[in-house]
Amino acid sequence: MTRMPERWYQHAVIYCIDVETFQDSNGDGVGDLRGLTSRLDYLYRLGISTIWLNPIHPTPNRDDGYDVSDYYGIDPRLGSLGDFVELIHQCDNRGIRVMIDLVVNHTSDQHPWFQSARQSEDSPYRDWYVWSPTEPPHADEGIVFPGYQRGTWSYDEVAELWYHHRFYKFQPDLNWNNPEVREEIGLVVAFWLQMGVSGFRMDGAPFVIEEVHPDTADRIMHYEWLNDLHDHMTWRRGDAVVLAEANVPKDQILEFFGPRADRLPMMFNFAENQQVFLALARETAVPVQTAIQASPEIPSGASWATFLRNHDEIDLSGLRDSERADVFAKFGPEKEMQLYDRGIRRRLATMLGGDQRRIRLAYVLQFSLPGTPVIRYGEEIGMGEDLSLPQRDSIRTPMQWADAPQGGFSTAAETVRPVIAKGEFGYPTVNAREQEQDPDSLLRWFYNVLPVLRQCPEFGSGTCSVLDTRDDRVLALRYDCPTGSVLAALNLSTEKATVNLAPQPGITDGFPIDVLSDQEYPPADDLTKVELDGSGYRWLRLTRTVGA
Ligand code: NOJ
Q1: What is the C-alpha separation between 100 and 107, in angstroms, rounded?
Q2: Among 241, 298, 435, 452, which is most buried by a count of CB atoms within 10 Å?
Q3: What is the DSSP string of 340-373?
């Protein structure tokens, strides 16, 4: 029997939303759940299948919600639990799934657990955090935010102890070695599954499972905790999934997925993301070809998640110095565009100079890679950044809905972050309403491409082979899966190219059909001469299984 891929997340298109900057419904300048619910038809038209919400819980908001002070609630600025359930209901009506961020490596220092833990050694929460009586010898190592974080251990005046924090000082790490902590997180996960979410994006997954001791920089990794979490989740909801932020070295990837995709079934492909930017900067397919070929075979049921931009800086720390220098030179040449000595704090459209052909090529490249695409809100209209905002806030500005006050985001005079109002990427020029009317817009292009992508499930879950095009500028991939076989050919350079993609073993009948291309090309019935314009792309269907 021929079937679609079994797991929903392998043929999903995930759209990431920061609720506070998406749509304000009550005029207080902060986006909220009701605002988001009012925009679901837009998301439906766009063709995404799943939304992932950045943290929605009560928070002092010193790290855009990644400092949680109550896992069982909704930040009152965003709405109520009732609003959340209504959102889920309205998503259900449209066949859209919802995932939320699971930020359980650390809490906010304002979380009642930490407040209690620091007060007394008799607190039931004392051992929920990681303490040291003296300053640990490696206290200045393992920093995630260089320039903005002094170390990974800080002294707490109240407890008169040092506590561990992988991220900012106000984010004390939970002690996962304590079974009570793991049990409580099990309750948190069960609570939100019961509320109707389909899964979680797990923040800082490798840090969650490391056992930290003050006297050594060595860490013991507890992969079995991920198995327990996975078992628990899937027992409560069979098809629930964790999409993990786990930027780990190649030799640990399979450990994180788990032998049967039974730890973290989905992981963002950070290594490949950097190679994509290198390929775009150098106008060559080689870095992407090498990244795909070097990627280990992942277990059945596991999936990569691909992305171009997310809510953080692009992390280029995995590139060689000369490679990083090339990407910086092309896409983030000014010091203020760079962050943490390793990344770029810009959106894609600005990095590519607003060049529509390059922007579209970049997305087709993302969608052609193995895995499930994740798109961040605003990318579909080509939003830019505001470099006057600190650190990663530059790329977290409100959604630009229309050429209306505050870009249609809010009726308030002042908004949670300023809406980009001026210049080539300001809301009078870049906004969803005008792009919906314009057949040549980026948004309308997305309207066209996402359904085609969803009609080609081979891209998400087929077996991928890198084809030898004998032309470094052109990336050609073939995917085979029970539903059929597809080819993707992309010209990473800005000059015309013609490549030979013949023969295609196992394809005996019918002609290849162009299902997507940047322009009309002569029919691809002769695969020895596949033409591509500069920055051109083509998806060719080789076979389709009847009834698939
Ligand atoms: C990773 C998140 O993506 C980032 O935005 C956040 O600051 C850190 N984890 C800490 O939670």
Answers
A1: 16
A2: 241
A3: TTTEE---HHHHTTT-HHHHHHHHHHHHHSSSEE
Q: Would you call 184 a catalytic residue per the annotation?
A: no
Find the helix packing angle between 356-368 and 442-455, rounded to 10°: 20
CB of 203 closer than 6 A to ligand 1? yes
Q: What's the CA gap between 144 and 140, in Å, rounded?
A: 11
Q: How far from 256 is each of 211, 225, 242, CA to CA, in Å?
A: 16, 11, 11
192 CB near ligand 1 (under 6 Å): no
Contacts with 212 (C-beta within 8 Å, 6 or more apart), sequence order: 130, 164, 173, 219
Write the residue with the smallest CA distance to atom 6 of ligand 1: 66
C-alpha 259 – ligand 1 centre gap (Å): 27
312 lines ligand 1 (CB under 6 A): yes
Determine which residue's CA is closest to atom 2 belonging to ligand 1: 203
Residue 311 Cα to ligand 1 midpoint, Å, equals: 9
Q: How confident is the model at residue 544, as a pLDDT?
A: 87
| Residue 245 annotated among the catalytic residues of the structure | yes
Q: Give the separation between CA 264 and CA 229, rounded to whole angstroms.
A: 9
| pLDDT (tens digit per residue) in 489-507 | 999 999 999 999 999 999 8
Task: Collapse the DSSP code of 146 into the 3-class scheme (helix H, G, I; strand E, B; otherwise coil) and give the result.
Answer: coil
Ligand 1 close to Cβ of residue 167 (< 6 A): yes
Q: Which residue has the tokens 């730890």?
A: 263
Dist CA 224 CA 228 (whole Å):
6
Chunked in runs of 10, what are the mean pLDDT values of the chain (548 residues)? 68 97 98 99 98 98 98 98 98 98 98 98 98 97 94 98 98 98 98 98 98 94 98 97 96 97 97 98 98 95 97 97 98 98 97 98 98 98 98 98 98 98 98 98 98 92 94 98 94 98 88 95 92 98 77
pTM score above 0.85:
yes
Cβ–ligand 1 contact at 307 (below 6 Å) = no
Distance CA 265, CA 300 (A): 9
DSSP state for residue 407 in the 8-state scheme: G
Task: Tell me the two tokens of residue 165.
Answer: 């924090």
Cβ contacts of residue 474 below 8 Å, gap of 6+? 285, 489, 490, 491, 492, 497, 499, 532
406: its two tokens: 């505050």
Instruction: Kindly give the distance from the C-alpha atom of residue 66 to the centroid of ligand 1, in angstroms, as a whole number.
Output: 6
What's phi and psi for 46, nearest 5 deg?
-60, -30
